Amino acid sequence: MNGNGSAMTHEYVHETRLTQPREQVFAWHERPGALPRLTPPFGGGPDQVRQAPSDGIEPGSEAKLGVSVPGTFGMVHLPWTAEHGEWDPPHYFTDRMAKGPLGEWEHRHVFEETEAGGTLIQDRVTVRPLPQWAGRLNDVGERVMTPQLNRIFAYRERQLKADLAFHDQHDGPRLTIAVAGSSGLVGTQVCALLETGGHTVIRMKRGASTGDGVIGWDPDKGVLNPHDLEGVDVVVHLGGASIATRFTAENKKKIMNSRVDSTELLVRALGQVPAEKRPRALVVSSAVGYYGTGRGDEVLTEDSPSGDGFLAEVCRAWERAAHGATAYGMRVVNIRTGLVLSPTGGLLKPQLPLMEAGLSGPLGGGQQWQSWIGLDDMAGAVAHLALSEDAEGPFNVAAPQPVRQKQFAKTVAGVLHRPAVVPTPLAGPKALLGTQATEELVAASQRVDVSKLLASGYRFRTEDLRSCAQHILGRTD
Fold it and tell me: Which NCBIfam families does the record cross-reference, listed alphabetically (predicted)?
């Protein structure tokens, strides 16, 4: 961080070089979804982007965020309102902190053409602390702010390059895609990725249809107007009640019905849409839980038989419900999801405090296989399968390199520069989740093969666990 001549104000500059032309890169930033795609997960929780920009990046547009307090693992946020100012497409745009924990924050995004026809982005940030911190600005800037900005903008650069490469690969006609479960951990990023590529995303939400990119439905009551699905190209269903709970009779019913009943409702509605206006494809979540719990070292392909246990039963029923859409000539994809990694949710979030404290290690012996996948690859694979007309049937969606649980803990803790040698018996998870949920969620061993996904043309961003952890945690040192 370099001084700009004022004792109280410092400036930060980050440069990103891209092969894509300036107009394409600037247009990416103008589209809905750019902010959640560029917001690092290590900066806060899943509600970090609390309100999307009200009018894109045009002057006067506002966005509201929650910025994580360092050391709180996304549990404590400070409110931040960003307001867009000067704007001259495709040359530059600016945003500033209208409300927040600093005296001043202005971010100027400058886009320049390179001689090779690509783009040079200069991110120029001006920062001034609150008056009470002014006397310690140099110390705060060098010890805290500069390293944090380095992490943030390195993350943004990786995201932008990977997203643009994804859209270059999927350069077919822009589609209209309806997404159920659009506000979840995965759904939020799927929608954002598709939107930045120029696709039209319609979110399926409980309640009434509003006509502004929202289809209203109520799976519990069996309410969905088939007319609302007319003209949609692809329907993606990612919804379902959380499985991270005790497997009581009531919770099991909720887990099963939230997936199967909603999918059956979708299929019935799709069957009532006139053929010429009907979506061409239905992409529905499933999980590697399809294969059951006790598969040991067996390498599991999409042709492997389903296993035992409650979650395997749920997945079978879920996939059968989705398969009903084939009767209407639709392409159906079942996404057998691995363990999604993000510090904002899923498997990793509850483990991070223990890892930071150096208290992680083998869980229940640590020999069980974990088929993990980074959140960005999860979103990318869903979008890829939605856009790929040849993709059909079940797909294992996990990273190409599964690991045993003890290696998982060692690798992620290692990225945090912490040991992972404290064994945890299954008695702990059993006290929290009960015996059955622990056996199916914590102790299950599933080693899936993703050759079919790779053969479909999907290009992973991070194939190995260390690279994934470094990216999502912003720790590349």
Answer: yfcH (TIGR01777)
> Mapped to the 3 state alphabet, what secondary structure does 38-100 carry?
HCCHHHCCCCCEEECCEEEECCCCEEEEEEECCCCCCCCEEEEEEEEEEEECCCEEEEEEEEC
Q: CATH number of the domain at 176-347+368-405+430-473, out of 1.10.287.110, 3.90.25.10, 3.40.50.720, 3.30.565.10?
A: 3.40.50.720
Rounded Cα–Cα distance for residues 158 and 161 (Å): 5
Query: Does the fold of domain 176-347+368-405+430-473 match that of domain 10-169?
Result: no
Find out whether 379 and 201 touch, Cβ atoms under 8 Å: no
* Total-model pTM: 0.94
Q: Write the pLDDT tens digit of every residue in 220-263.
A: 999 999 999 999 999 999 999 999 999 999 999 999 999 999 99
Q: Which of 1-5, 33-37, 362-366, 441-445 comes out lowest in average pLDDT? A: 1-5
Residues contacting residue 308 through CB under 8 Å, at least 6 positions apart: 292, 293, 294
pLDDT at 8 over 80: no
Q: What is the CATH number of domain 10-169?
A: 3.30.530.20
